[in-house]
């Protein structure tokens, strides 16, 4: 059976976080990347794919990326994957939201860890884990099938904040080099805002063209 790939975006919450439904329709299997809020809306979109949820993959543990996990898990008993370097952020997600004057449901404990080089599967799809710390210490990106789920590292025209707890601008600059080394046609599905490509960002993103440097923490 050859791999089929379907990617759906559901933008959720006050911070307009992008949750991604990644499905292999031929295998009737899907995963969620970063169910950040509004679990009901995410699950309704997921049901339209006709695919069965197999796992939740987290690019990082900021509250705007994890607030929908509880609602998803009440309907689907699937494992939650996180890089262990983000365990502390994950454990205080609801309190972090409070500092922004927002309220999220503290997610249930994560079940499995991801590390650089791990191969993640859904149906016959395969994604490689890149460890890209800086915006968060346990930040990962998921690379495969000509696209990368980049979370809050690289945005169209911008990069992730580093003026927040546990962030490191030096680490982020090194991680951006990993993105810059990807094939230029690679599509970047970001944690906020529109999708882009590595080629477009190399040509136009001031943080990648060397014009600017990330705000230091
Ligand atoms: Zn973030
Ligand atoms: Zn975010």
Task: Describe what you observe in this structure.
By secondary structure, this protein is of the alpha/beta class. Helices cover about 25% and strands about 30% of the residues. The protein has a single domain, classed as Ribonuclease Z/Hydroxyacylglutathione hydrolase-like (Metallo-beta-lactamase, Chain A). It has 7 helices and 14 strands. Helix 1 packs across helix 3 (about 70-75). The longest helix is centred in the last third of the chain and has 12 residues, at about 170-180. The termini are far apart. The model has no long low-confidence stretch (mean pLDDT about 95). Bound molecules: zinc ion (ZN) (2 copies). One zinc ion binds near residues 17, 64, 152, 191 and 192.
Give me a quick take on this structure:
With 217 residues, the chain is of the alpha/beta class.
């Amino acid at each position: 059976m050859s791999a089929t790939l379907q990617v759906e975006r559901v933008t959720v919450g006050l911070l307009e976080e992008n949750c991604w439904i990644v499905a292999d329709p031929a295998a009737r299997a899907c995963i969620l990347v970063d169910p950040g809020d509004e679990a009901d809306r995410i699950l309704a979109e997921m049901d339209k794919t006709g695919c069965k949820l197999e796992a939740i993959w987290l690019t990082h543990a900021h509250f705007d990326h994890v607030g929908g996990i509880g609602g998803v898990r009440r309907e689907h008993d699937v494992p939650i994957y996180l890089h262990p370097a983000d365990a502390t952020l994950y454990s205080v997600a609801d309190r972090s939201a409070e500092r922004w004057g927002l309220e999220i449901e503290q997610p249930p404990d994560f079940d499995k860890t991801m590390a650089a080089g791990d191969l993640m599967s859904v149906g016959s799809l395969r994604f490689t884990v890149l460890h890209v710390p800086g915006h968060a210490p346990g930040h990962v990106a998921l690379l495969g099938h000509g696209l990368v789920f980049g979370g809050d590292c690289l945005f169209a025209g911008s990069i992730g904040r580093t003026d927040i707890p546990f962030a490191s601008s030096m680490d982020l600059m090194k991680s951006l080099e990993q993105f810059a080394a990807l094939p230029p046609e690679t599509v970047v599905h970001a944690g906020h805002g529109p999708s882009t490509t590595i080629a477009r960002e190399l040509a136009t993103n001031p943080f990648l063209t060397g014009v600017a440097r990330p705000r230091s923490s």
